[in-house]
Amino acid sequence: MEYPTDRASGFSGGRKRRPNFIPNPETAADEVSISLHEWLALEEATSTREGSNLLQKEKSVLRKSQICYGIVEVFKAARSSALRSTPKDLQSSCVVENFTIFIRGDFLEDEDIGAIAGVRCETPPSRAKIITPNFGSSIFEQGPSSGEDGFLEVEVHPPPLTCLEVAEDCATSPDETRLRHLLGRLLHSIFLDGSPYVEGESDNVGSPESRLLARGLPSSIHLLCRDLLKGELSIDEASTDLHYMIMEPSAFLRCSDMTPSNFSLIRSKLRGRDAEIRTMNDTFCKLTTTGVSEVMFVSGFSGSGKSRLVRTVVPHVAVAGGFAISKKFPQGIDDSLSLVLEAINDLIIMVSEDSTDEELYSIASELISSVGEVFLSVIHQVLPSIDLLFNVNVTSLASLGRGMPEQTSGLTNESISFILKTLITAISSRDRPVLLHFDDIQWTNASSLSVMAELVSGGIDTSCIFLVLGYRDNEINQAVLNDLTACLRSSCVPVQHIHLVGIDEPYFIDLISNALCMLPRHCKSLSTAVYRKTKVSRPVSFLVLLAMGPHGSPEISLKGNPFFAFQMLGSLVDRRILSYNKSCKCWTWTDAIYNQDLSENVLFVLRDKFDLLDSETQHLLRVAASLRGSLPIAVATRLDLPIEKINSAISIGIMERCPGSDVESYQFTHDKFREAASADGETAFRYSLGMKLLDTSSGQKDEYFLDICDLINVGVEGNRVAHSDLNRIIAVNILAGDKAIQNSDFIRALGYCRTAKSLLPSDHWSSMYDPSLRLHLSLSKSLYANGEVDLAESTLRELIDNSRDPLDTLDAHHQLHFMLHQSNRRSEEAFQGCMRLLEQLGEDVPDNFENTSAPPFARIRHVLEKKSEEEILAIQDLNDENDLRRIRFLSQACIISSTALRPRMTAYCIARMVEISLRGFSVYTPYAFVALGTFLCGQRINAISEAQRIGKIALRLFNERFSDPGQLPLFNLAYYGFVSVRFESFQTCATHLRQASTVAFSTGNFALAIINNQISINKSFFAGKPLPSISEDIKRQIELTVKYKDSRFVNYARFWNQTLQSLMHGEAENSSLPEDRHLDGSLPADRHLDATASMMDTFHKAVQTFWKGCVLDAYLSFLQLFLNQLTNYLQQTCLVQSPQAIHFLDGPIDFQSTEQCNGGYPKIDASSKVSEMRRVIAHVREDLKELASESPQNYENKKQLLEAEIYSCRNETHNGLLRKAYDASILSAKSSNFIHEQGLACELAGKHFLGAGKRDLARKYLEDAQKCYTEWGCTPKVHYVKDILSGMDD
Fold first, then answer.
1. Closest C-alpha among 779, 747, 712, 739 to residue 340
2. Which DSSP category does 267 fall into?
3. CA angle, 375 as apex, 371 and 378 as ends, to 5°?
4. CA distance readout (Å), 1048 to 816, 1094, 1142
5. 889-926 pLDDT tens trace
6. What is the pTM for the complete model shown?
7. Could you give the 3-state DSSP secondary structure of residue 484?
8. By C-alpha distance, which of 339, 490, 355 is closest to 428?
């Protein structure tokens, strides 16, 4: 990708030479020549024309400077070229008539007199070709750059010879002095439009050089001519001066007067940072090429230019079609997560404003397809601006997520990270990179840093973010920074560090030169004095030393701090040591500057600046410093502040209007100004300010309510609060905590809740009962969201123990049970807690769950069979409060028992939920109905139609009446995991399960998220998803189980990983029975293994041996073991089959047991085994017929393949139905995208016809099978079929 030449690079001393510059001394086709005398006459006529302005005059001065530069370069070259001109030879050349000018332009407009292209000298005969910077229309405007092309080139013919050097004594010879004087006369005449120089005039005001000032020309021209006329300036030095003038005309060729208010670090170029700028831009270019997110740490002391360095890459982001967002963390206020959310919200707004309708539609479609519509309502709660991405899409977020309360209880910082990562992955890409810049991360916390790190994790094909984190290395918590860096590197995120120290003295002189609009040689003494005053040394961090390399020193010199330098200049002006001389149009200073005792602490310098302001302005700035460094006009009005005083601060560069703000607001131009605005007694001042704002506040609706609470809390800490204000402050913090929770800023919420609790009296459970209940519930949510699970649990138990009424503890119990269930191996404790609470609510909970599910299900099924679908959907909402409470906790108990694989408990809860729902519907009804459908599916074929009917009713209820994101993961788990698989495609089920997993992660329900993802992997495998893609899903699943320390699911993920690795790479698996395990699945008495894990282990052994084509006897042994384990498990758990086990049966019984009929495998000697397998096949054949009629997209190919194999086993080779059955199975598998089963059908057909002697037909089928297995990614099957084909060639 090509980017424009960076215009922010500093220049000092040396010339920038464009690498592809090829000089051509010949006249170009679009150039015209004119004598210098005639050209000056034209310039004079243009400048005196009526209507000419200052800008035209400045452009004329620039053109004349370019001509002078060409003349000086000709003289320089002539002395060392083949001409070998001496100073005496050149003296006669210093006349206007000796030169011709070359001009380039179209000359179609009267005011267009062309651009200077070159200068020709008659004596000595030579020519200089000039390529000047390409300036824009803002050439003389205040800004960081002068031109678009930062190169000034000159080529002289004949060129100088490197072997010739000017004699050293030539510089001091009379001839040289005379040449300088004559050259000064020539330049003087050129700048005065050809007006001749008169010898013998006074050196005072009427002197020739002062005539330049009288004509309004800049002091740099005046001083150049003066020093040449005096013989004090060499030709080389004159060339350097002119080079500076042409490269930066806005600084050195400005004809208007300079004032102290023009001092600005912002308008100055970023000098001395060329290497850092290249590193920054190269890193971004790499990101746009690889698509892998990058992290850049930029450290340095305050004022070293960290933010300005980051801004140099912003133009490249725009060129690449990306977006750039920058935020700064405030000091002393812990709202870090709010700032991160604000940054992503701003990104959404920027994307919506700068993208086409087609681009927005693409983003919206990607979000919906990957996460589903309901998840968007969860995003909307965290990022309200998300609806802007859908302004051209039919989706309306207002219709989504109608039942939000339940889902908020599980939100955590990790779930917030997941939401942000999901969104930014959809927005960012190689073609749409995102620059996220967070400055001053030393004021944030580890949790917020973790959220930022999560945004860039995941590697290629995820987010494409350039995350730039700036900090002051002398103020950051080193341990937190080390942890963040280690976390990023462990996630394989590329990390780089840039450390900024003070700029070197040559660049510093350039900086001061540009600020004062004086050439470097004129202000060198001043620049050196200021440079020495900024020389301090401070210890630095380990990461800074790491960024510097092996030669870094533990003491880094901070001399040359740009911000400090500019403030010191302002201080010198205030002390009248530095002043602007209008008559000379330049700055002058007294000798006192060299002896002045200036503070090396920039705050002292800035406070001197503040002392010049009146008391009202200082008070206004102090208020702004208290309000995070900004002052909204609305707040100033509430405080009756004289807002007009802000203009005084703006005029001296302390304040500026907030850019891009929706409300009128002002901010400090630099953090140091905010620090300087603070005074003694700051905590008391902020407390009184907060209380005054509170008196005018509308409560939680006040957009500044959290800021008000922050102000009050600063004063509360370490100070005694009046008793009359105590209860009010407690209430304010409770409200602020609730609002922060609503904003998903749990870090900030935790601070408010802890402050409120610290202020509670010792008898608060009696004297402040209601506030205590509300506070402890919010405190527990905040603690849990921040990962402090034990403290959250103890807080909830304290609330429960001190409650006066059990009804007051319902929310606390619900949250406690949720937390316990998320904690590994505490599901039983959570379930028993639900049961005890249900008893308190009047639920008749059985002492023993044996045989409790059968009678309720029979009665419920009878009621539902008698009602039509429309009659069921017409049932009104549940109004009985106690029924609502009971179904709420029955639903929670059902979630706990189902994920813990306790079917008896789950059956009871589902039956009771459906019974209550038949009296009135609630948000829990859809899950109750679909869970009933799940258990009906567990009855095998007999109840599938009934399960399908109830499941579809549940789906309509969920979509049309109760679209609650909190219920979606559980609903999809039951519906798409077990019910709809009988009539929906496997691919559809897998997609909805993945979306449910996404919603569960976003709402903090990690257990449900993992199990949804787990079953999605199962469905994807049987749907024929390419094995490498499934392998990536499984690796992610393992990472999640490890991350959340949930051993309940880690074994399942590892089993799948072993299976995939075996099928993809052909790794050897143990085809014998597992050690210490009997054929009936029992274990030795001294060992314990979870029954479902044991079944999964055996199941995966069977899958591996089947697809790898292992010995049939081993496969059948694993299959028999699995069936025995499943039978034992079902007998020990419930009267109906477990819905969690049904999806296991889709593999080994429904389909994969067909291949053992094929005659190509070793015969089974034991007649009992053959008889048993024939019985199984007959049973499966009947099942597949009914399943294929219900769900042909999933089972038709299996049914046809089983029919073909039965014909094959009967040796009915000439039966026309046999090939039709094979072809029908192949076509059906292809239409369902079952690439693996299409390959299997082709393989079996090929082996059949090979055995029948039809080799050509067999080859066709086998070659198709090899293609299918290759696409699926199953290496052992590819090799297996390839070996068969090779054997046919032998």
1. 747
2. T
3. 145
4. 20, 13, 19
5. 998 888 888 765 566 777 888 888 999 999 999 989 99
6. 0.76
7. helix
8. 355
